[in-house]
Amino acid sequence: MTDINQEKVLSLIVSQLKEYGFYTAAKTIADAIGISPEPNNKLAEICALNKFNIQEEQEPVQEEVEVDNGEFDFSNPSVSYQPNYSAIFTTMHKEPVRACAFSQDGAYVATGSHDTSLKVLDAHLIARKTRGDGDEKKVLKTLYDHTGPVNEVVFHPNGAVLASCAGTLKVTLDDYKIKFFDLQKQNSKRGFRYLSDAYPVRSISFHPSGEFIISGTDHHAVRLFDIQTMKVFIPSNAADHHQGAITKVRYASNGQTFASCSIDGSIKIYDTVSGRCVNTISKAHDGASVIGIEFTKSNSYLLSTGLDGKGKLWDMGSGKVVCTYSGAFQKFDCAPMTFSYNEEYIIGSDSSNHTICVWNSRNGTHG
């Protein structure tokens, strides 16, 4: 192999490692050979195109037999590896950050703060910071249009719009709104559309089609908005409502269902078409408030976070808990537990010592 070919191959390997999220391994190779390619999927594409052209002698392989080993059937299983806990970038708000979200393609990160501002950052430039690539501008936009603390930020599925919600009863400023920001307008720092509510808006989630957005507020009923008409729909049956403020709402990735959780300690699952509640998990955390929910990519499981200091993984088919993540103290205003990008790990915070905790998603062991 010539030096030129070797450099091309190594460049493809580094780019593919970055694309898969293995930044530490990519950095080791990149530093050793002095290259810094951008993340891309070219190596995987080349392998896919040539997989039938590779002729190698192989030993006969026995027919694969599926064995139930007690592990969860996540949609994207991968080989377990030790996560990298190194901080690679820090951006500053004037007050604590209350919300953070990636765009669907992973290219951008948005943050929302108690100081009422939002920031949009370039994720690729943040990843490159570990190589010491100068002082490139990581913060692409700073947005100002809320007058109260930002509770959640979410990207529209098209990636061109950022939505945020705000409001808290502890602040007298009246900003119980969902606001939409056009990220394609270079100099725009204000929202181009907003939806008002009579209560602080705690959580929002886009339907995968981008045509609808649901919200959870300090009221006990979920709101569903049609983005085009701005009309709001609220479940008419009181039995479909919570008994207290809603802390989090989430659509499943297939758009067929959505979920909500509340300080009343329950989790509710709704049918998207009818808007009716199809299942209620009462006292999901032994009566403690539930502050977070998140579907797996396969929509087969739901992760919940409670003020009992535990995370729980629920089987959506049976409604039973299949794994519990304990050992961290949770406060109402802390970040709820979430999945790592490949769902191998559960990531959460411990409010008692201000640390980030990581659990194995399949067996609940705490690292």
TrEMBL record:
<dbReference type="GO" id="GO:0005848">
    <property type="term" value="C:mRNA cleavage stimulating factor complex"/>
</dbReference>
<feature type="repeat" description="WD">
    <location>
        <begin position="239"/>
        <end position="280"/>
    </location>
</feature>
<keyword id="KW-0507">mRNA processing</keyword>
<dbReference type="GO" id="GO:0031124">
    <property type="term" value="P:mRNA 3'-end processing"/>
</dbReference>
<keyword id="KW-0539">Nucleus</keyword>
<feature type="repeat" description="WD">
    <location>
        <begin position="90"/>
        <end position="122"/>
    </location>
</feature>
<dbReference type="Pfam" id="PF00400">
    <property type="entry name" value="WD40"/>
</dbReference>
<feature type="repeat" description="WD">
    <location>
        <begin position="283"/>
        <end position="324"/>
    </location>
</feature>
<dbReference type="InterPro" id="IPR044633">
    <property type="entry name" value="CstF1-like"/>
</dbReference>
<keyword id="KW-0853">WD repeat</keyword>
<dbReference type="InterPro" id="IPR001680">
    <property type="entry name" value="WD40_rpt"/>
</dbReference>
<protein>
    <recommendedName>
        <fullName>Cleavage stimulation factor 50 kDa subunit</fullName>
    </recommendedName>
</protein>
<dbReference type="Pfam" id="PF23410">
    <property type="entry name" value="Beta-prop_VPS8"/>
</dbReference>
<dbReference type="GO" id="GO:0003723">
    <property type="term" value="F:RNA binding"/>
</dbReference>
<dbReference type="InterPro" id="IPR036322">
    <property type="entry name" value="WD40_repeat_dom_sf"/>
</dbReference>
<feature type="repeat" description="WD">
    <location>
        <begin position="194"/>
        <end position="235"/>
    </location>
</feature>
<dbReference type="InterPro" id="IPR015943">
    <property type="entry name" value="WD40/YVTN_repeat-like_dom_sf"/>
</dbReference>
